[in-house]
Design a protein that fits this description.
6-stranded mixed β-sheet, binds coenzyme A, 31% helix, alpha+beta, globular, 6 strands, Aminopeptidase, 5 helices
Length: 167
Amino acid sequence: MRRWLLEPHVRRWWDDGVHDPYPDAELDHYRDAIRGLDRTYRYVAWLGDRPIGMLQHYLIDDHSDYARTLALGERAVGVDLFIGEADLIGRGHGPAMLRQFLRDVALPFHGTNVCVIGPTAGNKSAIRAYEKAGFKRLREVRVPGEPEPELLLRMTRSDLDTRVDDR
Ligand SMILES: CC(C)(COP(=O)(O)OP(=O)(O)OC[C@H]1O[C@@H](n2cnc3c(N)ncnc32)[C@H](O)[C@@H]1OP(=O)(O)O)[C@@H](O)C(=O)NCCC(=O)NCCS
């Protein structure tokens, strides 16, 4: 991953400090994914010919500690994303990317109709963006090892389909 994608807006929410070079242990997650060793599937988001961010999806049940913490009681896909370009934050791209990613990639990939996303509870703009995309709040969750609780939000395939405003 190119380092500039993390600056400066992501650093606020990816608060593992500033490192140069980026720590090998963290990069190993990405190397494993590229080698197909990690059941988290990562994608670069392009706007025209410009790489602007990243999205990932995974089956919650493939990550047993996290699955135990969430205790969803249903088969669900987890997704995460960020936009890494300062001039493209806050312009409505996030909800549009997320809806397209769910419809065309993440839900069909896992053959499931339920998706959850867990921004840090204090990340008001991300929560607002996900609600605009159609997610509904479930509850706050304390994830062991994480400094702040996350707010768990959920969306189903029918929530996705009942909206017609996709660009
Ligand atoms: C989170 C992210 C993907 C959202 O995408 P986006 O395209 O920026 O989102 P949008 O522009 O559609 O919406 C942002 C909303 O938050 C609102 N907002 C901004 N700051 C806010 C605040 N402090 N409190 C409440 N709402 C806020 C904006 O007004 C906007 O809502 P509106 O359209 O009703 O005015 C993107 O901002 C991002 O990548 N941020 C940096 C990394 C990150 O936080 N990733 C998420 C980790 S879970």
